[in-house]
Amino acid sequence: MNINRRSVLAGTAALSAGAAFGLSSIPARAQTTLTGVTYLPPSYADLAYGSQGFVDFVNENHGEAVAIDFYDSGRLLSADEQLPALRSGNIDFMFHTTSYITRSLPILGITGLPGVVGPLYENPDRLKRGSPLFELINTELQKQGLTCLSLGGGIMEPEYIWSAGDPGIRDLEAIDGKKIRVVSFEATKAIEDFGGAAVRIPSSELYLALQRGTVDAAVANISTINGRSIQEQVAQVYRVPVTAYGIGIFVQTDRWEAMDQGIKDAMMAGVEWFDEHSAEEANVEYYEKQYWPAFKEGGLEVVEPDQAALDRFAEVSVDVREAWTQEVGEEVGNKAIALAMGEEA
């Protein structure tokens, strides 16, 4: 029999439904299998550390209760297919970067708002499980039938502006007229507010886009730069925190609540591990200790913005924040921003 994605998804749907609602023909003594996905490949060792670590933790420590069938690298579903598959019940959970799904789940935009991501990155406890901001995010997600089990204990290091050529982008004024690669809506708005032309290009095509001059620069996290060898095509990075993202574990609320308590306990043990280790490991062990030193040694020019530039960026980007608060509702949006900034909501 030929096995393709359609047949896998069909089988997964039947298995998952049985697992969630106790309809499986598997004897009660056998473990339940849950299917999880991520589009990120193992070559992104910094980002894969958390997702693969979660899977390994659950399988190795709670295998008597549940087994996780895990598909990375988009082998089962592409980045754009994951959320629809979760909603339809064809998978049991997914890891996803928040920047890819803020159009569908606007509350996740708080993880990428210009002027907010700097303080949020520097204070990861504000996004850990159980924090007021994390609970607010889940309240909004659950209105769409989804639950976030964890956002990895914080956002990843913010996305900066990496540019090719000489002089490249070394200040905010240099953004004007440049073609700059973006992914998220929040980054798009921020670049456009400074006169740049935002071009949405997936990371898999970024190397050639810079090499051919399709874009002059890219808004990207250091993980993308390292994972796609973009350091070979850029000469400098302007470290103004344009946007950011977190990596979350998402489930369908009804299916999650219907699962056997033993299965949920096993999964939550892995969630606690993920919340403690995912963002921390990437930001410190990979970025701070490995990637940045290697890039600087390789000749990358690192341009640090002064406080005046940071203040101006935050001021100009107020339009992005206002547009977002209008989308999620002013009360919710203002509360989320206040919590992210460490203010009283």
TrEMBL record:
Signal peptide start and end residues: 1-30
Cited PROSITE patterns: TAT
The keyword Glycoprotein belongs to this UniProt entry's keyword annotation: no
Gene3D superfamilies, sorted: Bacterial extracellular solute-binding protein, family 7 (3.40.190.170)
GO biological process: transmembrane transport
Coiled-coil region(s): none
Protein name: Putative extracellular solute-binding protein
Keyword Manganese: no
Keywords for this protein: Signal
InterPro entries (alphabetical): DctP_fam, TAT_signal, TRAP_DctP_sf
